[in-house]
User: What shape does this take?
Amino acid sequence: MNAFTKLKWPLILVVLLISLSSLNLLRADDDDDEEHHEGKAKIGGVYKINNRADFQLPINQKWKAECSSCHMLYLPGLLPARSWTKMMSTLKNHFGENAELDPMAQKEITDFLVQNSSDRVHTRRGDKILSSIGSNEEIQRISETTYFKRKHDEINSNVYKRKSIGSPANCIACHPGAEKGNFSEENVRIPKDIPAKIK
Amino acid sequence: MKNKERIIAICLSAIFISLPCAIFANETILKELEKEVRASGVKFIKFDTTAGEKIFRGEKVHSSGEKISCMTCHTPDPKKSGMTRANKIIQPMAPIINPERFTDIAKVQKWFKRNCNDVFERECAPQEKGDFIKFMMSIK
Assistant: This one.
């Protein structure tokens, strides 16, 4: 047995390890790339990557508990502070329902939403929605923005009436990652017309 | 005692401790509501299952023409999951299926305040709330 035969497997292992580690190097974050801002979120001047594990999603337990019992959890970065302030001061008639909170919860959630709103914390989607509305517009429904309408112009209005979807407000029906801010087209799965599943 | 027997003994103990706790919690809220009935000046006799069912199934026609009842979102069967108007699943109301129900007084009061306004366009009286809970607790 010559030297090569003896070292064959150790050599293969070393080559594999080097190639795997070099792949990791290539996948390193591209914070240096100032030109390419697509998909990045700016938090306190530092760019984080959207839809990636290292993106810090804002979280508040009271907000999560109170604001996702009737609908999916809409991230604060989707709307500007003025929209959230208006919404939180009109909870008695929250899209046709009473969503009143005790004063302490109301204050805590309002502060959280405002501090993480699209005009304070920049995210790709938040910026796009913001640029499609007037600077004084206190938009309440994202689905009424020109950005939303443009992105969904291929969707027939009948699709929203499917039992499993219900309305354009139910993002999570087609965008499973919506509560994490993931609205990428590649992850969209439009459910077929099946009756609402009542367990 | 063999391991298997030990495990069974622990499980049984856990059940025997938790069951009374769940029942106790439901009873606590009824005691609270009884206090509220008396405090409101109304003579308290008892909380009634039949009256509670009437509330659950009672329909109100709103000024919009829409007919609404608790069943609109919770479905006619309290043992089943319901759905909000925004397509979010609501866990079953019946404590026999969902033992967490009616154990958190603050949560219960919050939802009565909201949903009584949504359905009946008014607040529910403590007697009505107690009747409602009594009905839910009676479901087997």
